[in-house]
Amino acid sequence: LTFGDEGDEEDWETRPPVVTVMGHVDHGKTKLLDAVRNTNVVAREAGGITQHIGAYQIATELDGQERAITFIDTPGHESFTAMRARGAKVTDIVVLVVAADDGVMPQTVEALNHAQAAEVPIVVAVNKVDKEGANPAKIRQQLTEYGLVAEEYGGDTMFVDVSAVTRQGLDDLLAAILLTADAALDLRANTEMDAQGVVIDAKLDRGRGPVATVLVQRGTLRVGDSLVAGDAFGRVRSLLDEHGAKLKEATPARPVQVVGLTSVPRAGDTFLVVEEDRVARQIADRRQARIRNAQNASMRKRISLEDLDAALK
Ligand code: GDP
């Protein structure tokens, strides 16, 4: 099985959408991500404070059904484009944040260009509607020029007026994300196979050693699994969610902190579970050798999907 192979369709199950928040600087991306994170009342009561681990998942309700949404917790198109440049398609939906008192700005256009080039559906969050001088209608009108026509004007893009400060419109935003996902995307993934996915964030923790936040894209990741992530490898010692709670396993679209790697991988590295430690070590060794060679040749080489496939053969 190579990276990206989805295996048997019988084993596919619906998974939550993965969302990246993009938009012009100061239009409220960070604030909005914080506000959405705090909609998770159940989790908050049970687990306490949410940590910033690079991604989080919230539970919400749509038409009486409990649904989850995963948010990549690093705003901006840098992470989006860096991951895509490396072949990792992480984002299902882009939430484009536009401040209602400021309007469409250069980075708004840049962000929507990236999303459109990647054929990722966009939900527009018209933010800061609590402010004096907010003009949400103007944002809708401005964005028609870029092919984003609001549903109420006969288009197929959902616009939601929100305030990350007063929290107005947040539930509508979550609903719009799910409705857009249901209308435009077939979000299913294999839950039976060994896990594969992408490293969202990684660091060296004083007490715990290398800690990587990974997003499982297919399969189920379990404590005890041997995995390779970029040129790092190791056995999963523990899995922690965004509340620091220990998990036994992580299924598709679940962001989870992995403790147990022997070195720190890089954001955008792909990861996969292999049958035994020995194989994980071999693949990692081979990649490290390749990186050393590339370094000698001047620049540090990034592991591409092709390298990963080649290393597996
Ligand atoms: P980012 O650069 O896009 O991540 O923007 P931030 O989230 O850092 O927000 C920029 C500034 O706008 C901060 O001072 C926020 O407090 C403020 N801000 C963000 N959202 C809102 C909002 O909905 N209403 C108001 N009044 N201020 C907001």
From TrEMBL:
Domain of life: Bacteria
Single GO term (MF): translation initiation factor activity
Residues annotated as domain Tr-type G: 14-185
Keyword Protein biosynthesis appears in the UniProt entry: yes
Protein location: Cytoplasm
Chief localization: cytoplasm
Annotated keywords: Cytoplasm, GTP-binding, Initiation factor, Nucleotide-binding, Protein biosynthesis
Residues at which GTP binds: 23-30, 73-77, 127-130
Function: One of the essential components for the initiation of protein synthesis. Protects formylmethionyl-tRNA from spontaneous hydrolysis and promotes its binding to the 30S ribosomal subunits. Also involved in the hydrolysis of GTP during the formation of the 70S ribosomal complex.
Family: Belongs to the TRAFAC class translation factor GTPase superfamily. Classic translation factor GTPase family. IF-2 subfamily.
Protein name: Translation initiation factor IF-2
Highest classification ranks of the organism: Bacteria, Bacillati, Actinomycetota, Actinomycetes, Geodermatophilales
